[in-house]
Write a structure and sequence with these properties.
Elements: H1 3-16, E1 37-39, E2 43-49, H2 53-60, E3 69-78, E4 90-94, E5 100-104, H3 106-117, H4 124-135, E6 150-158, H5 161-164, E7 170-174, E8 181-185
Antiparallel strand pairs: 1-2, 2-3, 3-6, 4-5, 4-7, 5-6, 7-8
Length: 187
């Protein structure tokens, strides 16, 4: 074998071991200062669509907006006298023209990024690590909220271009408290 061929093979395998996205492992979410607040007897919720492409690029090593993924930064606090079980809760996004979109799991949003960027060569371990780093930003609803506990994280929506840039978006939380459905304007 020739030396250039061996170098080519080594470079090819080196590229296959890298992560699809270099997601920051220290979860740092944007501040929610100045956004609307929804308060019920059971919960306090703040939310804002994250459209800052510089933040998205530096955090996720990808432009989620271009890929059709709109992250919504959500902060929730249990205001009730009982722990709040939200494992069945779900979120939807409603546009001003009435279209409704269901939230996507973090893994599905991550796969959308991989597909959008056409990434096809990576190791399984690096893919799982990068996907896990991405999922760490998602709002965790799997464990009950203790009295007074607050959690912040992102809820991801896969949207068409016309909806991702739209104003007048409303975040709808279903099964979040005894009132069953809550709505919060994002813009």
């Amino acid at each position: 074998m020739t030396r250039p061929f061996i170098i080519f093979i080594l470079l090819l395998f080196a590229g296959c071991g890298s992560k699809p996205f270099n997601v920051k492992t220290e979860v740092k979410l944007p501040a929610l200062a100045g956004v609307r607040v929804l308060e019920t007897a059971a919960i306090r919720m703040q939310a804002a669509a994250v459209r800052d492409e510089d933040y998205l690029l530096s955090t996720f090593d990808a432009n989620l907006i271009l890929a059709g993924v709109l992250p919504v930064n959500v902060m929730m606090t249990n205001r009730g006298a009982q722990p709040l079980d939200l494992h069945k809760a779900r979120f939807e996004l409603r546009t001003a023209d009435g279209h409704t979109y269901k939230a996507a799991e973090a893994n599905r949003a991550y796969k959308r990024l991989v597909d959008y960027y056409g990434i096809s060569s990576y190791s399984k371990g690096a893919y799982k690590e990068s996907r896990g780093d991405f999922a760490a930003y998602a709002l965790d609803l799997s464990k009950p909220f203790a009295m007074g506990e607050s959690r912040q994280g992102m809820v991801f929506f896969i949207l068409p271009d016309r909806a991702i840039q739209a104003t007048g978006l409303k975040l709808i939380g279903v099964l979040l408290d005894a009132s069953d459905t809550v709505e919060l304007e994002l813009d």
